[in-house]
Specification:
Elements (H helix, E strand, L loop, with lengths): L1 H40 L2 H8 L1 E7 L8 E2 L5 E13 L7 H12 L7 H5 L3 H11 L1 H5 L4 H9 L4 H14 L3 H4 L4 H14 L7 E4 L5 H9 L7 E11 L11 H4 L14 H6 L12 H5 L1 H4 L4 E7 L5 E8 L6 E4 L3 H19 L7 E7 L6 E11 L6 E5 L3 H4 L9 H10 L8 E4 L19 E4 H7 L2 H11 L15 H14 L24 H7 L9 H12 L3 E3 L4 E5 L11 E4 L4 E4 L4 H16 L17 E10 L11 E11 L6 E10 L6 H27 L1
Parallel strand pairs: 2-8
Antiparallel strand pairs: 1-6, 2-3, 3-4, 3-5, 6-7, 8-15, 9-10, 9-20, 10-11, 12-13, 14-17, 15-16, 18-19, 19-20
Catalytic activity: Preferential cleavage: (Ac)2-L-Lys-D-Ala-|-D-Ala. Also transpeptidation of peptidyl-alanyl moieties that are N-acyl substituents of D-alanine
Keywords: Cell membrane, Cell shape, Cell wall biogenesis/degradation, Membrane, Peptidoglycan synthesis, Transmembrane, Transmembrane helix
EC number: 3.4.16.4
Length: 711
């Protein structure tokens, strides 16, 4: 009986314990359900986003750069489509996985050119060796060294970094040089993959991908995680001749390659604008100036990744769009003809002119500021071959400066009117000027021209007339033979420069290109330099400034901003023709000179006489009188400042010309600058100008005839 009671008592305890356990399980299960409910209802959306993260990634290489056309719609710079192979690195990709993909891809494509292998650095080889040979790499640092490092005050990361550093340093040259060519090819691919950014496509190969490579990779994409086949573009110049010379190449500028990516000095700026590191951008001049227009709109993708970081799918958020196209103000046929004229004449004189190596022509529409041609040629000796090559130096029209001589005398005469020291038809005596303690200052006719007015002074290019204007502006109203020159040199040159600046001489022209010079404006050491300034023998100017100056005289006193871009057009990729006008570049008046209109017209008469009067300094050199050309010649003694190494600075001559036509309704204004001749006897400046005007008006007639035929 007692045993039965004990058994029942044990059973009750067991039932109680079982019930207690079930109750506890029920409570725990209820808490779990409650917790799951909270997770699903309250935090479910957050966890869902954690599992399927959405990352917006701009995809490069899908937006072709805008193209560049000349004023008649002829392609100047375009894009060639090219097959490409890219790699997109996921967030969970390991180096070992990239090695495996690289080894497989190396069997399908060639990436062993001299450029590919040369890009591999010693550091690349060291990292690659450590990954390829982990056991051998681990032995480079002994266990004792590792224990000592771990026992030091260094953090775990610092310890790992130090072990890695020692491992790298202890890899021998023999081990690094043991890589075979096929292994280096794998490394060339791997280094491209390793340098890519997470979830951002990076080109493994985008040059010379042949159709067989493209097809083979496309068929095996399932074996190549992250690899894709796509189409990229290559910038090319449509006007490259058989010698590889490119018309206007120095002005058009360059675009970085996908390897170069963003320039380091502008990295933060471009990244703030949404660029990726490997985006191609304009590096110089026109490509740089209009980067924001030429750069296309990237395709924006939304990548869905799982919790491991693998991309599960992609959606297009915004389609890409090609960059907008530029239409230049320059007719490329006229540009090329001007280049030929410069090269022909400079080449013909180089044999007798040791220092002569370049020539420039800037041509503008004086009414609008449109740059009709900006041509420059430079003869450059190749140090390796010893051969002389003719290079495009159009950029020199705005980035180099020279003493321009008498071409600026129109500005000197107008400054004289403005400062009240002479007036139209004023007569001054041209004779040798003797100042105490200095060499006499004369005109090219050393005996002097006698009593002459301002128009005669321009026609015959009198130096003395200009000296006397500068003296008066500097405060000395009368010339005293054998006396001291008592002008205020600083005040005189300040007033002259102020007036010259109104024409664009000594200030930036405002052309829509970066990097133009202002010329050199030194402080005059003596009063004689102020006189030299008045005949173009002190300050220096660029050929483009000279063209802007004569344009200002030609159009009646309006300084026009030179423009090399005429229009911005919407892209039209379907038929490679110009799209709709997005923006027209309107003429921009920078300033109206303060001289009276009648004064400007009077100087215009002087410029007409220079070319058309029998005694004009350009009369015999400018033969195409039918075009109604007005202008001014210039000859300046100048110190040589070119690339040749000289023991002493030799005296050379700069021959220049400015002009416009027709003089009763100007539509073209030009400057011609030929520096560093051995003699002033040549008329190369006038022959070039004559042929440039002839080429322009013949081109215009030809285009009219073609238009009439179409009608």
């Amino acid at each position: 009986m007692a045993g039965e009671q004990k058994r029942k008592k044990r059973n009750k305890k067991m039932v109680f314990r079982i019930n207690l356990m079930f109750f506890a399980v029920f409570i725990l299960f209820s808490i779990l359900i409650f917790r799951l409910g909270i997770v699903q209802i309250v935090y479910g959306e957050n966890y869902k986003k954690e599992i399927e993260r959405e990352v917006e990634v701009p995809v490069a290489s899908t937006a072709p750069r805008g193209q560049i056309y000349d004023s008649k719609g002829r392609l100047v710079v375009g894009n060639k489509p090219q097959l490409a192979i890219s790699y997109t690195r996921s967030q969970s990709t390991t180096q070992e996985e990239m090695i495996q993909t690289s080894e497989l891809l190396a069997k399908m494509i060639k990436k062993d050119t001299e450029e590919d292998l040369k890009a591999i650095t010693e550091r690349d080889k060291q990292d690659f060796w450590i990954i390829k040979y982990p056991n051998e790499a681990a032995e480079k640092v002994s266990d004792k060294e590792k224990d000592e490092l771990q026992a030091s005050d260094m953090s775990a990361k610092e310890v790992d970094d130090e072990i890695y550093k020692r491992t790298r340093e202890r890899i021998t040259e023999e081990e690094l040089n043991a890589f075979k060519k096929d292994e280096l090819e794998v490394l060339a691919i791997f280094r491209e993959m390793a340098s890519s950014r997470m979830l951002t496509p990076h080109f493994i190969k985008n040059k010379n991908v042949n159709e067989d490579e493209f097809a083979l990779v496309s068929e095996n994409l399932h074996l190549l995680p992250g690899i894709d086949t796509t189409v990229d573009w290559e910038r090319y110049n449509a006007l490259k001749d058989e010698d590889g010379e490119v018309t206007l190449s120095s002005v058009l500028g360059n675009v970085s390659s996908s390897k170069e990516g963003l320039p380091s000095e502008m990295l933060e700026y471009y990244q703030s604008k949404g660029y990726s590191r490997n985006d191609r951008v304009g590096k110089s001049y026109l490509e740089l100036q209009y980067e924001s227009v030429l750069q296309g709109q990237k395709k924006i993708m939304k990548n869905y990744t799982d919790k491991t970081g693998e991309v599960t799918k992609q959606d297009v958020v915004r389609e890409g769009q090609a960059g907008k196209d530029l239409v230049l103000t320059t007719d490329i046929e006229f540009q090329q003809e001007v280049e030929k004229i410069i090269e022909k004449h400079v080449r013909s004189l180089r044999g007798s002119n040791y220092y002569l190596d370049r020539g420039f022509v800037s041509a503008m529409n004086p009414q609008t500021g449109e740059v009709l041609a900006m041509a420059g040629k430079q003869f450059v000796k190749d140090e390796k071959t010893g051969e002389t090559e003719v290079m495009d130096y159009a950029l020199g029209n705005m980035t180099s400066q020279y003493s321009m001589g008498s071409t600026i005398k129109g500005a000197t005469v107008l400054a004289g009117y403005e400062e009240g020291v002479i007036s139209p038809w004023s007569v001054l005596v041209d004779r040798p000027l003797y100042f105490d303690g200095t060499q006499p200052k004369r005109s090219w006719n050393t005996a002097g021209f006698g009593a002459i007015n301002d128009l005669t002074a321009l026609r015959k290019s009198s130096n003395v007339y200009m000296f006397l204007i500068a003296m008066r502006i500097g405060g000395q109203q009368e010339y005293i033979p054998r006396g001291k020159l008592r002008i205020d040199k600083d005040e005189g040159i300040r007033k002259l420069r102020y007036n010259f600046h109104q024409f664009g001489l000594g200030v930036k022209t405002g052309i829509d290109l970066p990097g133009e010079v202002t010329g050199q404006s030194p402080i005059p050491p003596n009063g004689g330099n102020t006189l030299d300034f008045a005949i173009g023998q002190f300050d220096t100017y660029s050929p483009l400034q000279l063209a802007q100056y004569v344009s200002t005289i030609a159009n009646g006193g309006y300084r026009m901003q030179p423009q090399i871009v005429k229009e911005i057009r919407e892209p039209n990729l379907e038929n490679n023709q110009l799209g709709a006008v997005y923006k027209s570049i309107e003429p921009n008046v920078l300033n109206k000179i303060t001289m009276k209109d009648a004064w400007i017209e009077h100087v215009q008469d002087g410029f007409i006489q220079v070319v058309n009067h029998p005694q004009g300094t350009a009369n015999s050199g400018i033969t195409n009188k039918k075009y109604k050309i007005a202008g001014k010649t210039g000859t300046a003694q100048a110190y040589y400042g070119g690339p040749l190494k000289v023991q002493s600075n030799p005296d050379t001559w700069n021959l220049t010309f400015v002009g416009y036509a027709p003089y009763d309704n100007p539509e073209i204004a030009i400057s011609v600058v030929i520096p560093w001749l051995s003699s002033d006897k040549s008329k190369i400046n006038l022959h070039i100008a004559d042929e440039v005007f002839d080429a322009y008006f013949k081109m215009k007639t030809k285009q009219k005839d073609e238009e009439n035929e179409e009608l």
